[in-house]
Amino acid sequence: MNETTKKESATMSSTENVLRASHVAKTYDEGGLRTDVLSDVSFTLKRGETMAIVGASGSGKSTLLHIIGGLDTLTAGEVEVDGRILSKLSDAERGRVRNRSLGFIYQFHHLLPEFTALENVCMPLLIRGTAITEAEREASVLLERVGLGGRMQHKPSELSGGERQRCAVARALVTKPACVLGDEPTGNLDEGNAAQVYALMLELNREVGTSFILVTHDTRLAARMDRTLVLHNGVLQESPKH
Ligand SMILES: Nc1ncnc2c1ncn2[C@@H]1O[C@H](COP(=O)(O)OP(=O)(O)O)[C@@H](O)[C@H]1O
Ligand SMILES: [Mg+2]
């Protein structure tokens, strides 16, 4: 990342908290079947902070990330992203906040199979209206940065698992979002590749100042983040650092 990028992210927004969840509750109610998933989730995430969310399978980690990311609605409470309360926005405004302030990385890369690595990384910029030459320039910088400078014209099927996830990291960061949300972003990789992708995300966190919330099963990877929060019985609790 060059000096201009650092300066841009430093002046992007003066809001100290990138994310704030306040008494978030979520109940799925489908066909008379009620599932209380989240009962009372509150936390704040500062600009540049990294946070791991851990918890048993089915504890609601993905549900929580979807709500924070504006992909699912909450039953009660409030989520604020970069100073905007999601539930008070129209669908179009919420879409803009997602595109402007958040980046997403999933367990499976979710790259578009018909497009090259370069085109995939360009996509979030094109969606926000960046001209194609500028988008390609910025996407190339990011792809170089994640070690895929020699793979820009490859399609996802022509990349290894680790390379695909590094491409997904580049796509999540190309818009210089305030926060990246990752749902088991290395869950599909072997230990070596998982450690490499984590190291890369933490380097980018330090260089660009992007906050990260990563859901993971791996307590060793979680320990590399600034904070670890545990989701249990619908409540999120800070786990003390040793
Ligand atoms: N769309 C849905 N409708 C009903 N129940 C759901 C839905 N999505 C998730 N759940 C339930 O919510 C709980 C939490 O799921 P999830 O957030 O995926 O957990 P985790 O990511 O921690 O494994 C599970 O019991 C799951 O069955
Ligand atoms: Mg999940």
TrEMBL record:
Which residue range or ranges hold the ABC transporter domain? 19-242
Its gene? lolD
Gene Ontology molecular function: ATP binding
Q: What is its EC number?
A: 7.6.2.-
* Physiological role: Part of the ABC transporter complex LolCDE involved in the translocation of mature outer membrane-directed lipoproteins, from the inner membrane to the periplasmic chaperone, LolA. Responsible for the formation of the LolA-lipoprotein complex in an ATP-dependent manner.
Q: Give the family, as the similarity comment puts it.
A: Belongs to the ABC transporter superfamily. Lipoprotein translocase (TC 3.A.1.125) family.
**Superkingdom per UniProt:** Bacteria
Per its UniProt entry, what is the enzyme's top EC class, as one word? translocase
Q: What is this protein called?
A: Lipoprotein-releasing system ATP-binding protein LolD
- InterPro entries, alphabetically? AAA+_ATPase, ABC_transporter-like_ATP-bd, ABC_transpr_LolD-like, LolD_lipo_ATP-bd, MacB-like_ATP-bd, P-loop_NTPase
From the record, give the transmembrane residue ranges.
Answer: none
How does the entry describe its membrane topology?
Answer: Peripheral membrane protein
Assembly, per entry = The complex is composed of two ATP-binding proteins (LolD) and two transmembrane proteins (LolC and LolE).
Q: Where in the cell is it found?
A: Cell inner membrane
Organism name: Rhodanobacter panaciterrae
Q: What is its main location?
A: membrane
Ordered alphabetically, the record's keywords are: ATP-binding, Cell inner membrane, Cell membrane, Lipoprotein, Membrane, Nucleotide-binding, Translocase, Transport
